[in-house]
Design a protein that fits this description.
Elements (H helix, E strand, L loop, with lengths): L3 E3 L12 E7 L6 H20 L8 E7 L4 H14 L5 E3 L3 H14 L3 E3 L12 E3 L8 H10 L4 E7 L2 H17 L2 E8 L7 H10 L3 E5 L4 H11 L9 E3 L4 H7 L1 H4 L3 E4 L8 H14 L7 H20 L4 H8 L3 E4 L2 E5 L6 E2 L3 E5 L5 E6 L27 H41 L8 H58 L14 H83 L5 H28 L8 E4 H18 L3 E5 L6 E4 L1 H17 L5 E13 L7 H4 L5 E11 L6 H5 L10 H7 L5 H11 L3 E7 L3 E9 L5 H10 L8 H17 L12 E5 L3 H13 L3 E5 L2 H11 L3 E5 L7 H10 L8 E5 L4 H6 L4 E4 L4 H15 L1
Parallel strand pairs: 2-3, 2-4, 4-5, 5-6, 7-8, 7-9, 9-10, 10-11, 18-20, 24-25, 24-26, 26-27, 27-28
Antiparallel strand pairs: 1-3, 11-15, 12-13, 13-14, 15-16, 17-19, 20-21, 21-23, 22-23
Amino acid sequence: MGSRSSKPLAAAGPTREPIKIGVLHSLTGTMSISEISVKDATLLAVEEINVAGGVLGRPLEAVIEDGASDLQTFAQKAKQLLLEAQVAVVFGCWTSASRKAVQPAFDQGKGLLFYPVQYEGLEQCANIVYTGAAPNQQIVPGVNYLLAQGKRKIFLLGSDYLFPRTANRIVKAQLAAQGGELAGEVYLPLGSREVGEAIAHILAVKPDAILNTLNGDSNVAFFQKLREAGVKPDDLPVMSVSVAEEEVRAIGPSNIAGHLVVWNYFQTVDTPENRKFVKAYKARYGENRVTDDPIEAAYLGVYLWKQAVEKAGSTDVVKVRAAAKNIEFAAPSGKVKIDAQTQHTWKTVRIGKVRLDGQIEEIWNSGAPVQPDPFLKGYPWAAALATRGIALGTRASLSGLFVILVLITWMAVGVGWMGSVEMKNYLLTIEAASDPAAGVPEAAMAVLVQQTLWVASRTQHWLMGALGLSLIAGIVAFVSVSAIIRNLGLLRETAEQMASGDLTARSPVVSNDAIGVLSSTLNTMAQQISSLLNGLEVRQRQLEERSRELEVAKNAAEAANRAKSTFLANMTHELRTPLNAIIGYSELLQEEALELGEEEFVMDLASINMAGKQLLTIISDILDISKIEAGKVTLFLETFEVWNLIEEVVTTVQPQLGKNGNTLMVNCDRNIGTIYSDLSKLRQALLNLVTNAAKFTDQGKITINVWKEEGEVLPLDNSEELSAAFSGCQQPAIVFQVTDTGIGMTEDQVSRLFAAFAQADDSTTRKYGGTGLGLTISRKFCQMMGGDITVDSEFGCGSSFTIRLPIAVTSPKEAQDDRETAEMQPKSSDDDLETSAESTEAKQKAVRSQALELPNAATVLVIDDDPDARDLMTRCLSKQGFRVRSSASGQGGLMLAKNLLPDAIILDVMMPSMDGWAVLSALKADRDLVDIPVIMITFLDDQNQGLELGAAEYVRKPVDYKRFAALLSKYQGLGK
């Protein structure tokens, strides 16, 4: 965003060149909620000053830049203001992070920044004047107030950037020193509205109060959600340090009413200066606007700079800084003064409670402006927070005592040495003088003796003085060392208590020396550990509660899944039953129409039959995909001829091929051999591929290629869980390839091809129809059988789908057993694989009842609750010469079976009261009925269960009654 200038008001007389000043605030982004009003206050002061004649007789011109709530933008705009616009001063920034971001620009460019917001302290920059509160003018008295109200257990909530984290370091040290307790500590990304987890944490630890250092839009979400959670200010007060009247408007007074704020100014302050300021602000920006602490701090900052410039007689930064020392101003909040040492502002501390009208009612104040103490030098417990605030203390005391003792010792030695030398000289002189030959008079001898005695006396006095000094130094050293030992002992006792698990123990902080720093750090560490442990307990409880909720949800989901499965089974049965009748009767009527020569009805009946089968296929697909997703699909493995399967597929798809005028070519060796797999699922997959090819090809060619690959590694081109057990399985394989010359697909369409309910695109679905489930189900089936489906396609030229399956498919359970024993056994050969397949097939056959052999004119009992199904079966079998009796229920069928002793029983599975499984079990438990072969006919894909219970055959509905009658006739032939 480019710079903007506010035009200075015209003044009487000749116009002088304006003084450019910079205004740098976030006019967009998450911090704009607070900073736009601060910018407005700055411009209000500029306008008032211009009306009054400007500064040094020159008008002010504001160059406005948008920091956009972005640190890099702030740094860039600060450089532009200083270097390009060449402003004399900049008024701006809100967050400490933005202040830190622009500070290098002011240090390098020798600029001057007036910073209007409370901050975390522990900083002093020659190029910044701090008109907001230092920690001892807001945070510290705010915590003192809470502690005085009995709120000992305090939770710290803040935005995740510099100010909240540093401010909370101060709070934690203060709580540790003053007997408070840290209930917890949570930080949210700046501007984040995801406050639910933080509120849950707060409610779980049950603090006495919350100290809130959130900034930006996070406050709006926090107070709204806190109120929705039923938290009342009387029960859990929140003291905010970054929420003022402007933020209250955005939050909504009803959401925050009753909570506390700590500032140096409220709009309700009753001073003449404030009444004038509020009136001017509302007149300029609207009656609905409010003033607050940062707004007032920005406003007074402009006036403080004006006074400093006029005192210095220049806008030069160095001169202005020197002139600004101890400047006072009658601000709306009261008298303020720039501290000469720190360039911070003396301010009155105020604590207020938010009212329902959005204003703040003052409930406590400091009574007089408080001297700024950014490094908290007046608080021993804060000694560890900033190195520049720590006195020399213990090290200086011990070092000083050591130097004094050394000096005293050297003084004593020096005095003694000098005295002894003088005494020696005098004694030597006396000795020489005492010789009679020397002729020294007695008076002279007396003088020498007196001088010697004087030297001795002087030496004694000096030594006594040294002794006295040493005694004093010893006493001082004893007291100092005793204090150090005592403090170290207290520190050791506290550390031992903490080590034993008592994290409430605190070491007294009596000074800001090294031991005081160590004690303060130890207390804060213990408090932090205690808070973290409490937080872990809360998290554990929340996890346990969440686990219980998930368990309940899991049980509900499983119940819902069971209900869904039951619903789908019932619904598909209810839909399939009439469809089965439609398909059966349409086939029967086609035969009768041909017999009666009514050929004009045959095509209509064929259309009805085909429509019924298509609808039945759709219903079956939906049920199949549901069972696949639920993991309830099982494999029925058996050995069958590949060529027979291909013939069956070709026969089935002939009507579909003729519909679009396509030709089909099959390339398959009749002697290709057998495969051990799930016949039903492989047939379904192949039918899907061939019918799709016929549907998407018009007047074209479709080719089915089948060949055997010896010892190929199956290229499983997927990471599906179903195929994970078989990946990398090196076995002989059978490859089925279906190629067409149809519409083909693009790469994007191929990438979405195997997704459920998806076709090439919506236009394809509209034109060609279908549910988009066929390929998904086919691929899942192939993956269950240890293979996969791959596709190659070219748009407009056609597609080629390839199925690769091992010759001997292993069921998932068998595959798991094989993996568990693979490391203990040598690698299997191809012969071993064939032997394994034969063994598995033998197990499958062992569960079946005896071979179905029927006599001529055999009696067949049909047990099915559907009258249409009984009627169709009776009519079709009667045509083939069978005697047919039927029953509509399981109980009636058992009684009829005992009376008739039929040659075969055709049994439906899904019946009311007593289902087919129960009937089959009862038949095999009756010694008179156990040998009667039972053919299960159902929509369910539970072939394994049917054969394990002793069924002779398992046939899926809808039944092709001609083929079914042929099947019975085949067994009838065996009986001859």
